[in-house]
Specification:
Strand content: under 5%
Shape: globular
Structural class: mainly alpha
Order of helices and strands: HHHHHHHHHHHH
Low-confidence stretches: none
Number of domains: 2
Largest sheet: none
Number of helices: 12
Mean pLDDT: 85
Distance between the termini: 35 Å
Helix content: over 70%
């Protein structure tokens, strides 16, 4: 997915590719979320659950194998993979509605019925060859995503297992932190004895450690995992956390290559870091223990520091080196980690 952002033209990532990155990211995230939430509420180690999982893995492989910037050539396999995953999840809810009782039964019935609306609308896309097929594909995905929001009156009566849900999302986040570490190797590997490469790699490692420290310290020690809720802050907030991590990973590699327009890369980094900051506030804010809530001056400090990236845009480009930009990123996340530890 992040490879889409490596298309550089005149020192910038064309908006077309940024948009494609978003369009690729959301269906994969939502497919994973769908099965994770079903397992959270109704999952059991039963034979038919294992068979459903095996089938979903097949459709996931089809969808992921079709990921490309040339959507037209891979549209059909992508559609088959995505709709196969979503249909299997909807069927699982329908099966669960026959065995569950009380609030759990109503949740399974609601989601089992309503998810088919989004699936049916996305399926209409096979009738078109023009941009209309993307319109119907993503209209169905959007409807699929908002269905749980409109069903909160059912979902809150059958709350998620908070500890399990947080653990699942932290594992997804761990995968993206792993991709960041791989990028560190890609920076150092071509010339492992080059001091400049090593310095970039070391700074990138400190950035990864700081982000990971801040994130997992919240997950492990600062939030109330027993809180009863529909889990929607965790679910939707993590979309932006995960996208931000991918964007930050790409931005560091682009800084290292030194082929980017300074104004563009500063704006790109600012958006990614602001997205990460707001998303982590959104996800952890209502779950943080009273004794661990961030103070207003801490939030203000982080926001002011983040605005430095906008200020740098108005400074002569020659005075702002890529290495300095990376150092500023590292300082921000070290500061965020330090504040989170308090």
């Amino acid at each position: 997915m992040t490879g889409v952002l490596f298309h550089i033209e005149n020192g910038e990532i064309p908006f077309e590719y940024i948009f494609k990155f978003i369009l690729i990211f959301i269906p994969i995230w939502w497919s994973w979320v769908g099965q994770t939430l079903f397992t959270n509420r109704f999952g059991n180690d039963l034979i038919h659950h294992r068979l459903f999982m095996i089938l979903q893995m097949i459709f996931a492989i089809i969808m992921i194998a079709s990921l490309t910037t040339d959507f037209d050539s891979a549209f059909l396999p992508f559609l088959v993979g995505y709709l196969g995953l979503r249909a299997l999840t909807a069927i699982q809810y329908m099966v669960a509605s026959r065995t569950e009782e009380g609030a759990g039964k109503k949740v399974a019935q609601y989601l089992g019925r309503c998810f088919w609306i989004g699936i049916a609308i996305s399926l209409i896309s096979v009738c078109f060859d023009s941009w209309w097929r993307y319109f119907f594909l993503y209209l169905g995905i959007v409807i699929d995503i908002v269905v749980p929001m409109f069903g909160r009156k059912y979902l809150v009566k059958s709350p998620v297992n908070g500890e399990h849900l947080i653990e699942r999302f932290s594992q997804f986040t761990t995968i993206l932190f792993g991709e960041m570490l791989v990028s560190t190797i890609l920076i150092i590997q071509p010339n492992p004895d080059n001091l400049w490469n090593i310095m970039y790699g070391v700074l990138f490692c400190i950035l990864i450690i700081s982000m990971g420290w801040q994130y997992f310290d919240n997950i492990d020690y600062k939030i109330d995992k027993t809180k009863q809720s529909a889990g929607q802050r965790i679910i939707y907030g993590h979309l932006f956390i995960l996208m931000a991590i991918s964007m930050i990973t790409i931005s560091v590699r682009l800084l290292f290559q030194e082929h980017m327009d300074t104004t563009f890369i500063l704006l790109f980094i600012f958006v990614a870091m602001l997205m990460y900051l707001l998303a982590t506030f959104f996800v952890f804010g209502s779950y943080r223990l009273a004794s661990a809530k961030l103070k207003h001056h801490h939030v203000l400090m982080l926001v002011i520091f983040l605005l430095c990236f906008i200020v740098m845009i108005f400074i002569n480009g020659l005075a702002v080196s890529n290495f300095f930009i990376l150092m500023m990123m590292v300082i921000f996340f070290v500061l965020y980690a330090f504040i989170s530890l308090k």
